[in-house]
Write a structure and sequence with these properties.
Number of strands: 0
Structural class: mainly alpha
Radius of gyration: 18 Å
Order of helices and strands: HHHHH
Largest sheet: none
Distance between the termini: 25 Å
Strand content: under 5%
Oligomer: single chain
Number of helices: 5
Helix content: over 70%
Length: 149
Amino acid sequence: MTDLLLAIAHHLLVFSLAAILAVELATIRPGLGGAALRRLGIVDLHYGLIAALILIVGFARVYMGVKGPEAYLGAWTFWAKVGAFALVGLLSAPPTLRILQWRKRARAEPGFALGAADVKAVRPFLIAELAVFASIPVFAAMMARGIGV
């Protein structure tokens, strides 16, 4: 039962992270400011919290799941999946830092709104995050079929 609950939580968290990433990509547009910029900051905070929960629940699945750590730790597909997730995390840092800067600027300048240059600086990172994120279910499907063990 623990394995099932961990698997359900893990999948729901991963789908939530994908949704948040899509929301960020759709939201960051020229003209964004005020309350919408504050909401973006909250969304990005949740992105980080959910990513941390994915790691916690994912490694709980490795060590507390029915397969046990030996089924995962020796598989290159597991490490590829973990590496892809880590790369997504690294790619998320520049947008997060920019969002924090924008929110700080918006507090200092109430009329502040994102310009095209602001969006252009962040958008490639978000697209790269999505592209790398898409490889994670590929590695997961490979793992589920015993590939890479």
